[in-house]
## 1
Amino acid sequence: MKYRNILLVDDDTDDAEIFVTALQTINNKIKYSVENNALEALKKLQHSKLSPDMIFLDYHMPYLDGTEFLKLLRSVKELKKIPVVLYSGHSGTLLKEAVDKFKKVQFLKKHENFRKLTELLNDIITLETATKK
């Protein structure tokens, strides 16, 4: 499994806890970091305090929304190749536009069903691994 270091940027602590539990269910050797503030996460990424293989990003965040985060992330040479998955409870037009506009961006809808979330996360990690080979 290529993606062993995951960053989740999500201001909802309950959603973050469920996400982390799902990751650990898939593979307990996956390392993860959780940031609840997109602006702070971006600063840490820019200063190499975080070095994820993949970022899961809640689209609706205070201080810096998903589109703004992606614009800034993609403007930094060392960070622009990190795959990002928009992770949101909403699936509106803005999310579709963001996925279409930015390279290496996917979308994952937040699920209340833990089993389904685990399956989808596993599929994303597995598909990304297969694509990268």
## 2
Amino acid sequence: MGSNYALFVCISLMMSATSAVDVHNIQELAAAKKGSDKFISIKNLHVPAGVTLDLENLQPDTVLEFAGRVTFGFKEWTGPLVRIAGKKVTIKGKPGHVIDGEGARWWDGKGGAGGKVKPKFMRLKLDDSVVQDLHVKNAPVQMFTANNCKNLVITNVNLDNEDAHKNRIGRNTDGFGVGDSKNVTVQNSRVYNQDDCFCCGSGVDIKFINNICIGGNGISIGSMGSNRVVEKLTVRKCKVISSFNGIRIKARKGEKSSVSDVTFDDIEIKDIQHNGIIIHGNYPTWHPTDEPTAQCPIKNLVVNNVRGTVQKGGSNVWIWLANGAASNWKWNSNVTGGGKKLACKGIPAGLKVPCGK
């Protein structure tokens, strides 16, 4: 991001050691955002039911800290519970803090498809900013969404929905979602959830580096459609453990979109239930009985050193694309264990992919 931005981050962190405005109740928030002190501490705050913790319109150079325990009242609504927006800001968590959605009050095994109306957790709209050291726990549904962001670094964030695994009551608890954004990096973080660990639906120059994904639906691009574009996306040095899929590109059948210059490098998968690597053009289905369409070209794809294990009932690699949709791919994978042999189609001519094995 350049030396000027690095200097901004350094100055912001130095400010955190000087003065602060503590916000203990929602009524204090508006004044804190407008005040001259640019270090705001959200400390042991309870947000009333049906109210968004509105952290939009933060002044440039603000340091926003979460401390203690932040909780939310119960209501059936769409949320979000937290909304953060600004430019040149630092969002961070103090050691020992937790932002707790107490999602068990909403979980019913149906996620966003029915049952209780569940609020999304946290939405970000940030430019030239850093989010670091946050502990987010027990989201009702989608956990952490960054849309319309530019030059954003998210680092050392723990998205912990492990409690929702009990009796499989959590669903659609997506971890990191990125859309319509440019130059966003998510790194050194951990996700334990019940849907996509990371999903990019659109964006340019997106990175997902050195992260751990547990229990969800793996690392995904898409679903692609509605003229969305994903360009220059890198996933590197990540682990996907005990998840439904490992890595995935999914394109909606009959809808225009494009995926280009994508790299999956040094990815370890372990104990995957369904597909180790899956790339398909017939979403929302994922079976070879439904023909794919070619409206989403996938070009300049690199799959390098993607390795690990799939459960016996799953498949190691499955590709299901219309002829001509894929071009200029490079492939190096070693995924084993899956006993399900699925037919594949649409692999670029001359490329050796261990598909259907």
## 3
Amino acid sequence: MSIHLAEWSPETTRVFVVGLLEWEDPEIWAPFPDAVPGRFDAKLVQFFKSQGVPESQIVYLQDSEATLEAIQESLVEFLEDSDEEELLILYFAGHGDWDSETNEYYFANYDAAEDYEGYWSVSSIIDDIEENFSGSHVLLMADCCYSGGLIDALKERDLSFAYACVTSAYSHNSSTGEWTFTEALMKGLQGDPVVDLDGDGWITLYDFARYAELEMAFIEEQKSMFLTLNDFDPQMQLAKVTKRGTPGGEKRVEVEYDGTWYKAKILEQKGNQARVFYIVDRSEEWVDSDRIRPYEPETFSKGKAVQVEFEEEWYPATVKRGWYGLHFVGYDGYDETWDEWVGSDRIQPA
């Protein structure tokens, strides 16, 4: 069964949100104080409430509420209350971790210490859903380091439900402390035309995933990931375009300022001038067109020998894929466990 907006109703949707910007031990898990004002995890919850999802079908654990015990007990109880044909949306924001020795992925609950046994494991999330959910479709989203571990874990399982997953980063990559990914999600859910990449008047899950991929690559130089399994329709309609604007018309460019070129978006054009939004400081300015050039990041070809920075050391590597200024690399002499996507500041010709 494929879910479309015409069939979707808030009454048959369950939303489980865990958002952390601070932890019990800040020396282990650094807090994100700059992300607290206008936090997008709270905005996401408020959006679903405004759409009519019953409060009994929403769980939101924020910061100190999100201990491992509270998360696990709440999730199981929440899933046990589900009914047939329901859609489960599970979202996490905070710190993520990856144990390279076991290839296990974790989300850092509020009381996470140094022992992986006290972390909220990605595998346990899937276990709990498979064992306790009675619905039909599951949408998983995460905005954190190593969030792509959700996708890797799903690929390894024999699953009972239709799953979709969108993450801010590849499974072997860290992520920034910004809200770029979740802000892209909110734009999609609210019907912003910039997310409507095919211009058909509807924002689908696929539209959002591709828009998030472009945003994360352009702004954060991270590779957002997307997967659907078991007939989860990637064209599931999230929202009808509700705002005026050019569908999919967001232009990502570079703008010259004081002799330096900065990433920016064109918000509006009038004659020979454009109103631009600078990524670096989120400021706006009207500029002449001769100060604008297309964003065309250098991209190395497949098989190119390069050097890649990892923990302040440079290692020989080979490009396996290049896209939009990002490169998927394999480290020479190391197995595929260490393959990752890297941004422009971490790669150079051999």
